[in-house]
Specification:
- The protein is α/β, with parallel strands linked by helices.
- The chain has three domains: 129 residues, no CATH class; 106 residues, NAD(P)-binding Rossmann-like Domain (Rossmann fold); 191 residues, no CATH class.
- The protein has 16 helices and nine strands.
- The longest helix is centred in the middle third of the chain and has 37 residues.
- It is globular.
- 31% of the residues are buried.
- It holds the Pfam family Bac_transf.
- It is found in: Membrane.
- Keywords: Membrane, Transferase, Transmembrane, Transmembrane helix.
- Belongs to the bacterial sugar transferase family.
Length: 467
């Protein structure tokens, strides 16, 4: 997401959300008018609130489902065929949610096959919108032309972490300028500029809209007067840490320094009211999930017993580190063999040979995590937060990774920002990368961010991207 605040959508996403909302409204209105034209009686007038409720029950679930399958993610990497597949899933989800609304509320279902025809029309309309949006490269709307002051180690993080086209959809690189004190082993493949004119002249002549400060040694090395003139002319000046945070949704742990944390926005303190509301929301959501998933949990128990015998344990508990570094026991459906850790604690791995056949399935679709609803109900965890780690690993990671302990400043969760943004990892290097996302979450933590993470977790579950 572009913008220094996580919930500020980029122009391309805003445009496609609006376009698809208008398609949904248009399809609904045309459908209602066709019903009137066909002579069907009992259709409410537009001035009546009941028709508005029908419209909301139709449009809101679909757009929520589109969000949940990742189609409002500016940096999604999908072919048109993949987009169609996700649209089909979102339409089916929207239909299901809408049906639940009609069951749980006094709203009468609209006549005949009217709803089904509406959803078919919406599928065609949204497919058309997506086709032309991809052709016009909607994700490049609002794209900025940026110039980086620095070509050393700090600047090289852009080259290393933003190599793909999808990483740069919101900006176009004008080039890098080597500064005094920059290390020689920094930028290797990007364009390094040699200016023969004042910085402000180059910026204006080349349409640069943003300057990123990434010099290794800033003291007495930055062209302050030129930057001042650029700022007066409306050019945005951004620190490399803030740029990485904005574009990648993570905080560059290896670049931050205490004063940046002190003066930056975010890292809001918690209070009793916020904590109480968090507990109420998590408990309410936990009870709903428990009510909806108990049949799935019962089936999981049966499958584990069928694969490994009637005496095989179904659950396992493991000590993890939670809020303020306090240990607690986490509960899961057992997905590994009973002798999985006979040689001591080991990192879980992708394609782990210790995983059973049933375990492989329930891990892929996150079913193994469902017993942690108990941890949510007793207050050890929330639905959203950094994933809790084992004490043995925490002791190692605190010593080797700077700021690792700060992830314990918030309650751990069933899912989190790192789980959405980073693939499955089982090494210290992976722990460092996940910490970058965890710190971003801690800095920007809010109800809206939690809600988006919960909605986007559906994409992981639906498409079998369990992490």
């Amino acid at each position: 997401m572009a913008g220094s605040k996580f919930h500020n959508l980029d122009p391309g996403s805003r445009a496609i959300i609006l376009a698809e909302f208008l398609v949904l409204i248009g399809v609904f209105v045309i459908g209602v008018e066709l019903l009137r034209f066909s002579g069907f009686e009992g259709i409410p007038a537009y001035g009546e609130g009941i028709l508005l409720l029908h419209c909301l029950a139709f449009t809101f679930p679909i757009q929520l489902s589109i969000l949940s399958v990742g189609l409002y993610n500016q940096k999604i990497r999908e072919t048109f065929r993949g987009v169609i597949r996700r649209l089909l899933v979102s339409i089916a989800l929207g239909y299901f949610i809408s049906s639940v609304i009609y069951v749980l509320t006094p709203l009468d279902v609209l006549p005949g096959n009217f709803r089904e025809l509406l959803y078919a029309a919406v599928m065609m309309g949204l497919t058309t919108i997506r086709y032309f949006a991809l052709k016009m490269q909607y994700e490049h709307m609002g794209r900025k032309r940026i110039l980086v002051l620095g070509a050393g180690e700090r600047a090289s993080i852009i080259e290393k972490r933003m190599r793909r086209k999808s990483d740069r959809v919101s900006f176009e690189m004008a080039g890098f300028i080597r500064m005094p004190g920059d290390s020689d082993d920094g930028i290797q493949r990007e364009t390094i500029l040699e200016l023969d004119q004042p910085l402000e002249s180059f910026v204006l002549a080349n349409g640069v809209e943003e300057i990123v400060i990434a010099a290794d040694e800033r003291r007495a090395n930055l062209p302050v007067d030129s930057l001042f003139l650029c700022k007066l002319r409306g050019v945005e000046i951004t620190d490399i840490i803030d740029f990485i945070e904005r574009e990648s949704g993570q905080i560059a742990v290896n670049l931050i320094y205490p004063s940046w944390v002190i003066y930056s926005n975010g890292f809001h303190s918690t209070n009793y009211l916020r904590s109480s509301l968090d507990w109420v929301c998590n408990t309410f959501l936990g009870l709903i999930v428990l009510f909806l998933t108990w049949p799935l949990m019962l089936i999981t128990v049966i499958m584990i017993k069928l694969e490994e015998g009637i005496r095989a344990p179904v659950l396992y508990s493991q000590e993890r580190i939670g809020l303020n570094g306090q240990p607690f026991n986490i509960y899961k459906f057992r997905s590994m063999r009973t002798d999985a850790e006979k040689d001591g604690a080991k990192w879980a791995q992708k394609e782990d040979p210790r995983v059973t056949k049933v375990g492989n399935f329930i891990r892929k679709y996150r079913v193994d995590e469902l017993p942690q609803i108990y941890n949510v109900l007793v207050g050890d965890m929330g639905f959203v937060g950094p994933r809790p780690e084992r004490p043995a690993f925490v002791k190692e990671l605190v010593l080797s990774i700077p700021y690792y302990n700060q992830r314990h400043n918030v309650k751990p969760g069933l899912t989190g920002w790192a789980q959405l943004k980073y693939p499955y990892g089982s090494t210290e290097a992976d722990a460092l990368e996940k910490l970058k996302f965890d710190l971003y979450y801690i800095k920007h933590r809010s109800f809206l961010l939690d809600l988006l993470i919960l909605v986007r977790t559906a994409e992981i579950i639906l498409f079998g991207k369990g992490r």
